[in-house]
């Protein structure tokens, strides 16, 4: 086999009900204690973390070379829950190589995709099954579960994208979503919280 | 808005049962007459084309700039059917920029993903709902429906991939799938047919 064809085709099995992907996918679990400093209600955060430190989300990532021309993919399962009135969310990130897009397709549940860029623009997209959202190059993205069941989506992004979590950890995300009178309300956020 | 952020986020709605994507996706229909010379049984091909020229497959493509860093995506719906004993299939292609991967995720129905490369290697992957197949850089790919219902999958590929259909039109695909005793049988193919 020539070197340029060193990689053989393969397939993984996505459970379309649970979002789980079997081997060789890599499972990653983010508990509330992994998201320190990101939620607004610090008292609620401390209480919840002390009272069991719940799993906020799981990621099943299909691993290929993190190189130009390849495509990384994963499922993300955000569990239902709130920290105070703020819905459980993912850390949120820019791509380290910023001119790299991403596609999120909702399989189950309901949630939001939040987007922001370095020019201060922001957008929110409601995610329900079948919604396939385009995250253009240069846009940071965070997802959150506004429902009472797991919110599950499939993501695909270029192999050479990389992840920059630090920008969001430091500056916060420009939008936040809180429960108000039983419904999600999207709010502009002035800072880390 | 700065020029580097000229593109705003957006979303499309994929009907997870039918595979249809609403606007702004572009619909493309391939009838049997669009696949001249690709199936083995020429008599069956002529008869079927004359008797109504059935739709073999439909594609709903989400359009973004065909540039490095962007991601193209589509759903493909291959209808059930055969030309003689050969199952309805897609044209099949290499990427024009060959070092570009693609991911196919089956949503409904059943079929095969066939793969081949210029070194003469070939692979087949059975596609059922939830199977997410990785088409590595440099591998040509064709899909086919072996079931009695529409076979529906979602595909994502880099914006600067391009399509080379000519190589497959001229040389044929290295694998073919025929019905034998009611079941699909994968066969090595020596040429265009």
Helical residues, percent of chain A: under 10%
Radius of gyration of chain A: 17 Å
The quaternary state of the protein chains shown equals homodimer
Order of helices and strands of chain A: EEHEEEEEEEEEEHEE
**SS-based structural class of chain A?**
mainly beta
In short:
The structure is a homodimer of 193-residue chains. By secondary structure, chain A is mainly beta.
Top keywords for this entry?
homodimer; 193 residues; mainly beta; 6-stranded antiparallel beta sheet; 3-stranded antiparallel beta sheet; 14 strands; 8% helix; 41% strand
Characterise the protein shown here:
The structure is a homodimer of 193-residue chains. Chain A is mainly beta and 193 residues long. Helices cover 8% and strands 41% of the residues of chain A. Chain A has helices spanning 42-50, 166-171, and strands spanning 10-13, 26-31, 55-62, 71-78, 82-83, 86-87, 102-108, 111-116, 122-127, 131-135, 140-145, 151-158, 175-180, 183-188. In chain A, the strands form 4 sheets. Chain A has a 6-stranded antiparallel beta sheet with strand order 2-3-4-12-7-10, with no helix packed on it. In chain A, a hairpin with a 5-residue loop joins strand 8 (111-116) and strand 9. The termini of chain A are far apart. The relative contact order of chain A is 0.20. At the A-B interface, strand 1, strand 7, strand 9, strand 10 and strand 12 of A face strand 1, strand 7, strand 9, strand 10 and strand 12 of B. Strand 1 of chain A pairs antiparallel with strand 10 (131-135) of chain B.
